[in-house]
Design goal:
Helices cover 31% and strands 26% of the residues. Helix 1 (10-19) packs parallel to helix 10 (304-310) and helix 7 (137-147) packs antiparallel against helix 8 (170-182). Strands 3-2-1-4-5 form a 5-stranded parallel sheet, with helices on both faces. A 5-stranded antiparallel sheet has the order 12-15-18-22-19. The protein has 13 helices and 22 strands. The N and C termini lie far apart (47 Å). By secondary structure, it is α+β, with helices and mostly antiparallel strands. It has 3 domains: 2-105, Rossmann fold (3-Layer(aba) Sandwich), CATH 3.40.50; 136-191, ATP-grasp fold, A domain (Dna Ligase, domain 1), CATH 3.30.1490.20; 202-413, 2-Layer Sandwich (D-amino Acid Aminotransferase, Chain A, domain 1). It has helices at 10-19, 55-72, 82-86, 89-95, 105-112, 114-124, 137-147, 170-182, 250-270, 304-310, 315-323, 362-365, 402-414, and strands spanning 2-7, 27-32, 42-43, 76-79, 100-101, 131-134, 151-155, 164-167, 193-197, 202-211, 215-217, 222-223, 226-228, 232-235, 240-243, 276-286, 289-296, 338-345, 371-375, 378-381, 384-387, 391-399. Bound molecules: adenosine monophosphate and glycine. The site of glycine has 7 residues, from loops. Glycine binds at residues 161, 223, 238, 296, 300-301, 303.
């Protein structure tokens, strides 16, 4: 089977790495991929990861990729990133009979439009933060003044995981509204804001691989979104992750399935946009049980870099079964071991970063099968590996328990060097009881 993976981050590297182990996969392509992915797959220079804020470019690249898939006889395509999903890559591929794992644009609204997701949850009583949506900043400001802080302000559209501001004070909330709606720092994604009740608790990422009707769950994982240690500072795409997340015991998983996953799948089906692909429930484990922070319509990054190394089932078979609507016949098995991933970022991330610094130290890591390197923002320049983005590399360690996995991940991280490299030193701190 020829498989094409869409994306260029650490998540896609992990997907490609896992697919490469499948006896069913004879050829792997990635678009556009990265230097790490290039060791396992043929990279195709089609930039399907263009932001949704450039819809014409994104659309043109999706059509180019579809033609590529047709010409090469690609049997299955898997989409990592959210922008092409929101732009309808799944619809476009299916129109020409291509098999593709992911939600249609209509189903991807569960991520691409927070307003849609909130309305859906309200309609079927899925537990989530109380919220209001505003299309005019003056009304949003008045609402914040009335509610006070802490309060959460979010751009309604996609914003690379950076569109939510947890405001501790009223001033912070007002500033967020001004930046999102008036200054449009996230472009048209800020045409509306969602203002939410602040939820207190531990956050867990729960992934359901769905075929529209059935689903298979992966072990709950925990991500570290803030840039700073102790979960301080601005949010990023994710600075590290670990799994399993002991905060989410099996009773809570069962509760989330009953109150969140199953009702959402049934409602999406009822509305004529059945959800196929990865339903990523970002959950807050509150004193009243799991509540939805947000849904994503794709794998998490960096959660995928810990979950797929723990997955023992053939990933190609899972994707194929999902595309053929027979996930009820698949039993997912996860290793009982623990996995920890630490992201190494460029100085300045999640703000502006400088690229082009040489990366050293990866060669010594390659020998250890419990230490994995997933590339994110890297590039080859004159035969050298250099930095090329905010999050540069992910180091994942596997071990029999979490404390050992943490220690091993950091041993790996310390061997990697580039100018301005930054990483959080407290990944998995909550599970280690250091909080
Ligand atoms: P989102 O962009 O919706 O994923 O939000 C980004 C992050 O902001 C989440 O991962 C949470 O850490 C935090 N957050 C979002 N909404 C809330 C909320 N209602 N209460 C508390 N924290 C939140
Ligand atoms: N890990 C957060 C995300 O993928 O959105």
């Amino acid at each position: 089977m020829k498989v094409l993976v869409v994306g260029k981050g650490g998540r896609e590297h992990a997907i490609v790495w896992k697919l490469a182990q499948s006896p069913q996969v004879s050829k792997l392509y990635a678009a556009p991929g990265n230097p790490g992915i290039a060791q396992l797959a043929e990279c195709v220079d089609i930039q399907v990861d263009a932001p949704i804020t450039q819809p014409d470019k994104l659309r043109a690249e999706i059509l180019r990729l579809r033609d590529f898939a047709l010409a090469q006889g690609v049997d299955l395509t898997v989409v990592g990133a959210d922008d092409p999903l929101a732009a309808g890559i799944v619809d476009t591929f299916r129109e020409r009979g291509l098999k593709i794992f992911g939600p249609t644009a209509a189903a991807a609204r569960i991520e691409s439009s927070k307003a849609f997701a909130k309305e859906l949850m309200a309609a079927i009583g899925v537990p989530t933060a109380a919220h209001h949506t505003f299309a005019h900043s003056a009304e949003a400001v008045a609402y914040v003044r009335q509610q006070g802080a802490p309060i959460v302000v979010k751009a309604s559209g996609l914003a690379a995981g950076k569109g939510a501001v947890v405001a501790r004070t009223e001033e912070e909330a007002l500033q967020a509204i001004a930046e999102i709606m008036d200054q449009r720092i996230f472009g048209t994604s800020g045409a509306e804001v969602v203002i939410e009740e602040f939820m207190e608790g531990e956050e867990v990422s729960l992934f359901a691989l769905c075929d529209g009707q059935h689903y298979c769950l992966l072990t709950p994982a925990q991500d570290h979104k803030a840039i700073g240690e102790g979960d301080t500072g601005p949010n990023t795409g994710g600075m590290g992750a670990y799994a399993p997340a002991p905060a989410m015991a099996s009773e809570l998983v069962a509760q989330a399935e009953d109150q969140i996953i199953r009702p959402v799948l049934a409602e999406m089906q009822r509305r004529g946009c059945p959800f196929e692909g990865v339903l990523y429930a970002g959950l807050m484990l509150t004193t009243h049980g799991p509540k939805v922070v947000e849904f994503n319509a794709r794998f998490g990054d960096p959660e995928t870099q810990v979950l797929l190394p723990l997955l023992q089932t053939d990933l190609a078979e899972i994707f194929l079964a999902a595309c053929e609507h027979r996930l009820d016949q698949v039993q997912i098995e996860m290793s009982p071991r623990a996995a920890v991933c630490v992201a190494i970022a460029s100085a300045g991330y999640p703000g502006k970063v400088k690229n082009g610094f040489e990366i050293e130290g990866l060669a010594t890591l390659a020998a250890d099968e419990d230490l994995l390197v997933f590339h994110a923002g890297t590039a080859l320049k004159g035969g050298k590996l250099v930095t090329a983005g905010g999050r540069v590399l992910n180091i994942t360690a596997l071990a029999d328990d979490l404390p050992i996995a943490v220690a091993r991940a950091y041993e790996g991280v310390k061997q990697v060097h580039f100018e301005g490299a930054y990483y959080r030193r407290d990944i998995a701190h909550r599970a280690l009881g250091r909080d």
